[in-house]
User: Fold this.
Amino acid sequence: MNKVNCEVVCISAMALADGYDSELSPDRIKEHLASCEECRREVEHLQALSSLLDRQERRPRTENVWQRIEPRLPHAPASQSASPVLYPFILLGGLLLGYRLLQMIPDRDFGFFFKLVPLLIVIAAFSFLRENPFKIHPELRLEGE
Amino acid sequence: MDDEAAIKKCWAGDNDAFRYVVERYQAEAVGHAIAILGNREDALDAVQEAFIDAFQALHRVDLTRRFYPWFYVILRNRCYKLAAKLKKHEVSNWDETEILAPAASLQPEDTLLLERAMLNLPAQDRELITLRHLDGLSYDELAERMEIPQGTVMSRLYYARKKLRDRLKRHAFAGFSEGT
Assistant:
């Protein structure tokens, strides 16, 4: 077998030793290990290391961080209502809705500059938030992902 | 008081109830942060910030699920952000172990060597190895904690162990006999 396959076998063999199935069947792994001295030694070494690591424990910690946290907790309680982070967006939504309702008044023309109001509202909101709307946040994740 | 009761009290405005949560999980959190950052002082900063983040995000906690895995995602984000901010990958050069407890199965100097080899790994490899072997997390749990697919856990764990084995070889570590 070529080098790539050897690597796949070793990864699969270690997963099997951990009690997990991989893309290769146990028979296929055993068959390869029986015929490949290099992989067999590699897996044996890593299993010996795993066994050594399994016998270790974390050092118990005694640090107390509460004293450092307590003075920094916000006084407003965390609640299931809208997060404070959402408030500017709620305000933004309200303003845009108000604009739309004004637009819907029949027989009223507010002129060209009135059409720029939504754009100004959005620019003002992002300026207030000090946020670049075109910046991509790689850390953002959908809730529940 | 259990986690659910404490969190509900926090929702009702009782900040003291958060003390229960902090005191229950701080030891575990400090251990995990040290394993990622390799430095006790930075770890304490990260844990502190993570608990404050968690308090501010408590309204998003799903009470049907365990608190700590949810908190751990916040903690590791804090740790990696701090590591990026500090722009250093230096780790403490301790005379005694900070991650590993003294083990009956190893000489103290071998435990220290093992920890130093672990500290020489990239933080994500060290995190994965400690969660798997010291905490005994399953592949499913590792995938959830590290936000990666299970297949990635499998391969990353293999490469992390391989790197650790190579570092131990370099240090002429005698704590395990290869091939046995």
